[in-house]
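Changelog excerpt

This revision adds worked examples to the README so contributors can see how folded entries look when concatenated. The first example is reproduced verbatim below.
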Amino acid sequence: QLVESGGGLVQPGGSLRLSCVISEHVRANFMGWFRQAPGKEREGVAAMYTGFGGGNIYYDDSVKGRFTISQGNSKNTLFLQMNSLKPEDTAIYYCAAKYRRPLSWGDPSEYNYWGQGTQVTVS
């Protein structure tokens, strides 16, 4: 239902662009990117309202100014542009979606749909 791609190995200071393709039968008006490092809980990275009119973009403080979340023109693709990558950004990155706006955008339990994840390694 959600398929991520674009992960890989990059040197510190480098860039990667993650993509998430959403199946047509998934009804989602709010989507986000999460990440999970070994031994750590899954955490919200960025999220946005993708319904009519758009707007409301959220970032974790740790990625503000470095990461940009965006929606593709076809509305069924979500991107995460990651610049100035740091070793602490190393994690599995997941795309997530839900129909309604969450109470807390960074809470993984709020989301109904998840991708399989893509590994990002900064070293």
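The second example, added in the same revision:
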Amino acid sequence: QVQLVESGGGLVQAGGSLRLSCAASGLTFGAYAVGWYRQAPGKERELVASVSRGGNAYYADFVKDRCTISRDNTKNTVSLQMTSLKPEDTAVYYCAASTRVVLCTDPRYWGRGTQVTVSS
């Protein structure tokens, strides 16, 4: 059974930082592109950042220069370091895994999500 378990969410003031982590099990982690999505109330889920099987990172424009995604294939983990957080970053953040080679689109597996709340 595949599991993606997120941790690290919470409440932070604007301008602060958070590090989200995702631990994967039950899959050949290195065979997946993995990434982070987010969904704010009333909005569609959107891709925040993705890292390919080969370790190449992609960032959505709205987080570029504020986030760093990394994966550790020996520990089956993917992390998202977020800095200079804004109230509009408030959302539930989901870890995802896709069979795509480069970008974590059309994920096959999802975590349950972790809440990030940024206060102004």
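Reviewer comment on example two: The two ends are 40 Å apart (CA to CA). The mean pLDDT is 97.
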